[in-house]
Amino acid sequence: MTLSLGWLWALAAGLFSGHVLQKLCFPYFWRDLWFLLKVVRYGVGLELSALTSNVCTVLERFIQQAQRIPDKPFVIFEGGVHTYRDIELRSNRLANVFLQRVGLRKGDCIALLMSNEPDFLCVWFGLAKVGCSVAFLNTNIRSRSLLHCFSCCGAKTLVVGSDLVDSLDGILPSLLEDNIQVWAMTSHSEHPQMHTLLDKIAGASDRPVPAELRATTSLKSPTLYIFTSGTTGLPKAAVITHLQSLKAAAGFWAFGATQEDVMYICLPLYHSAASLIGIGGTIKLGATCILKKKFSASQFWKDCRKHDVTVFQYIGELCRYLCNQPKTDEDKVHKVRMGVGNGLRQDVWREFHSRFGNIQMCEVYGSTEGNLCFMNHVGKIGTVGRSNFFYRLLFKYDLIKYDMVKDEPVTDQNGFCQRVERGETGLLLSKVSATSPFFGYAGSKQLTEKKLMRNVFVKGDAYFNTGDLMAEDQEGFICFRDRVGDTFRWKGENVATTEVTETLGLVDFIQEVNVYGVEIQGHEGRAGMAAMIVRPGHTFDGKKLFEHVLREIPAYARPLFIRLQEEMEMTSTFKQLEDLLATVSTRALSPENASYRTPQVYICC
User: Fold this and answer.
1) How far apart are the C-alpha atoms of 253 and 555, rounded to whole Å?
2) Which letter does DSSP use for residue 98 in this model?
3) SS3 72
4) Any idea where the AMP-dependent synthetase/ligase domain is (predicted)?
5) What letter does residue 365 receive in the DSSP assignment?
């Protein structure tokens, strides 16, 4: 009896010691393990469905939800409630119109230029039911960039929202010359060659089109093209497969959201965050989403209280705008319990918690076209993700040494890259393999290859270059540091400096121009600065430049500052000037009060 009690005491002491040791040395062990098991279980389920040729796409899941919960609100938009049945039937009507009147066929690629509204989803789903892939066009792009998008993905048909028809002024003849048919979500059109959809939807059948049109046996079949800016200038069409869209749709679920949650989506649907994570995640759960045409800081919390919102999507700038709103007694009067997004700065994160309550902020890191995703399921402030021994077994990534002056990776005597030590900043690379494929960009093998680094650590290996400088601390938390290359982020959008440079270079009095981002105190990201040399025999014409920029460049990509120079300085010098210009730009600069000694700085727009 005494011996048995001794063993029990020893076992209890051992268990207690192990528990204390785990808490001290591995405080996140169980949280990491359960989260990873949840994600792995979902991934295994996807792979098994592919092996059995029983792929349940996001669209298929939506159709299932429309049958299971037909009367549940799916989308609430500007006071209107649209149930799962409503969206299902309207998308059926559109699918029938696309088949019978537009003449679309399975495998066609269709470009979609629409603002946030329920019909964005109806058109998207209607096209998918016909078996078409859909290219989401950024509603800010114009002229040359917009025409370029069609050649990227091979789209020969454009569906445009009623509020964006005017944005085609000036390029409609070019579209028609390229044999691209344009269909507007209107009942009538002033242009005889622009077709209308609303009048045809009214008389169309809401019966489902044949299921075999939407059926797929491969998770790796393209379903969407989402355009992303990069270091190569014009927008690139990232290939989005069913596999990627299904993984993204599990984001809300992975963080613990349920069908009882109400999602608030105010980010643009042409981006992967709102469409793949937001709408896809709502569909997976069978939840309800509040869809906004645009984000409004003054209306955000009013909407949340009115609709009992529990989960919202964000980018870092959105949270900062909310923190900058006047304080009220109702700041903590809401049911919001979770935010899912990226780019949240530490100081804004803490202020957001202090101001609006201890909302679980779930940072997600990953690019639209990338093959790697980090998820900060622990909620540690200032980190974009969490890694550990188990994660590294499944997802192969590395941080390598990067020379910021030479703007290139540091290599050893054999030409191979070098890993950084824990805590050091390095360029994030993700290994390309069968379990982590990189699908690249439509229409250009060269662009796809440019995002890959080969022979990184051994001959024959291949890694996706994220272009992001990151650091991993001793506990396995991942922190974002900066971006490399010719891209900077402003107003929640990636600005490709090459594209802006080429557009500005079309102005007749500009001989040479270089665009880069500068930090502004109190603002997220970097604002555009265009350094330029005026062509000999010409004079700087601010009015002409302003009108050109307004017409040709999206609002978020327009340079806020113009720097006139007599000769162009090297990139390294520009990097040294950024700190000076960031300080200068915090003052109220304008053509009237700017310094007129060389170099001169003006606000452009």
Assistant:
1) 34
2) I
3) coil
4) 64-387
5) E
Half-sphere exposure of 376 (CA within 13 A, CB side): 27
Dist CA 251 CA 247 (whole Å): 7
**Helix, strand or coil for residue 334?**
coil
Q: 């789209």: which residue's tokens?
A: 155
State the helix-helix crossing angle for 346-356 and 316-323, rounded to 10 degrees: 50
Q: Is 234 left (phi over 0), alpha (psi -120 to 50) or beta?
A: beta
pLDDT greater at residue 151 or residue 327:
327
Closest CA to 185 of 98, 250, 284, 266: 98
Please tell me the distance from the alpha carbon of residue 305 to that of residue 336, in angstroms, as a whole number.
Answer: 9
Sheet holding 510-518, edge to edge: 510-518, 527-534, 561-564, 600-603
Asked whether 538 and 564 are in contact (CB, 8 A), the reply is: no
Does the model's pTM come out above 0.90?
Answer: no
496 to 338, 410, 502, 518, 554: CA distances (angstroms): 32, 25, 10, 14, 11
- For residue 524, the Cα-to-chain-centroid distance in whole angstroms is 16
Q: Alpha-carbon distance 506 to 508, whole Å?
A: 6
What is the percentage of the chain residues whose pLDDT exceeds 90? 54
Range ranked top by mean pLDDT from 14-28, 113-127, 310-324, 402-416 = 113-127
The pair phi, psi for residue 219, each rounded to 5°, is -65, -20
Q: Where are the chain's structural domains?
A: 86-241, 389-483, 487-603
Task: Give the pLDDT confidence of 86-139 residue by residue, as tens digits.
Answer: 999 999 999 999 999 999 999 999 999 999 999 999 999 999 999 999 999 999
- Both tokens assigned to 580: 């000076």
Q: Terminal CA-to-CA distance of the chain, rounded, Å?
A: 86
Q: In sequence order, what are the residues at sequence separation of 6 or more whose Cβ sits closer than 8 angstroms to the Cβ of residue 466?
A: 367, 370, 372, 427, 428, 429, 430
Number of Cβ within a 10 Å radius of residue 604: 18
Is 79 exposed, middle or buried, given 0-12, 13-18 or 19+ CB atoms closer than 10 A?
A: exposed
Helix (H) or strand (E) holding 565: none
- Identify the sign of the CA torsion 431, 435, 438, 443: positive
Distances (CA, A) of 514 to 386, 397, 574, 586: 37, 33, 10, 22
108: β partners: none
Fold category of 389-483 in CATH: Luciferase; domain 3 (2.30.38)
CATH topology of domain 487-603: GMP Synthetase; Chain A, domain 3 (3.30.300)
CA angle 270, 273, 274 (to 5 degrees): 60
pLDDT digits 0-9 by tens, 534-586: 988 889 999 999 989 988 888 888 999 999 888 765 433 233 344 334 333 33
Average model confidence (pLDDT) across the chain:
86
- Run of H or E including 5: helix 2-25
Q: In this predicted model, what pLDDT tens digit does every residue of 182-198 receive, in sequence order?
A: 999 999 888 888 999 99
Fold held by 86-241: Rossmann fold (3.40.50)
Total H helices, total E strands in the chain: 20, 29
Nearest Cα to 475, choosing from 423, 419, 429? Answer: 423
